[in-house]
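Structure ticket #2291
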Amino acid sequence: MFIFKITKNPSHMKYLILAFCFGLCTSAFAQGFITPLEADDMFVINGKECIVNLASGEEVTGKFLGGTMINGYLSNFNIRLENGEKAKFKPEDVARLSVKASKLAKLAMMTESASSIKEMTNTNFDEIVNREYIVFETAMRHNKASKLRLMQLLNPGFDSQIKVFADPNAKETMGVGVGGVKLTGGADKSYLFVQNDEKAVLVKKGSYKKNFDELYGNCPAMLQVFAGEKVKWNDVAGHVFAYDQVCK
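Resolution: structure written out below.
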């Protein structure tokens, strides 16, 4: 339960709003980034309606016919245009690709985004599961300047400040399972963060506390609410959500 003292101080009010916002979102977004598709999963979006926003500013619509996924990046893809013709696109031609999510894809996003069965029963996943589209956007890799890659956006809906993408080299934490059902764990140990359309930054579990100030330093309220031992890797999605909602 949150009890706030009414204040006319804008900075103090922002601090209270952020604390309240984070209190609401940590349970809903802990380990709550959308699980990225892998090469073997591409079939779940084949034949689905899609929207391609080109780097030139044009928009093309059609049906997704398939693509080549290499190390977590979509290196190219094909669509069938509304006139029946086929078109092929490369990352440098595209700003954003949105593919209509199938029921199977939504189910996969719900299941993989939960860190435990207990959390699945107590968490409201509406913002994660009820995504109309699976989104890919172009961004520069953290280790190669000027090299664009088409990567799946893991935080659609709260991505105005930070865009989160999968790190193809990320290793998941070990989970505990019974009878083939994952009960706990399975959280990625690193992600790629993009702020202000700049080069991607590799954000790792082991150095997250140390880099917290650098990531969110332009929002003093974030540093006031979260500091030291309060910074936990399991809350990284909540941090991104709170930053998106308050630090504008």
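Closing remark: The chain has a mean pLDDT of 74.
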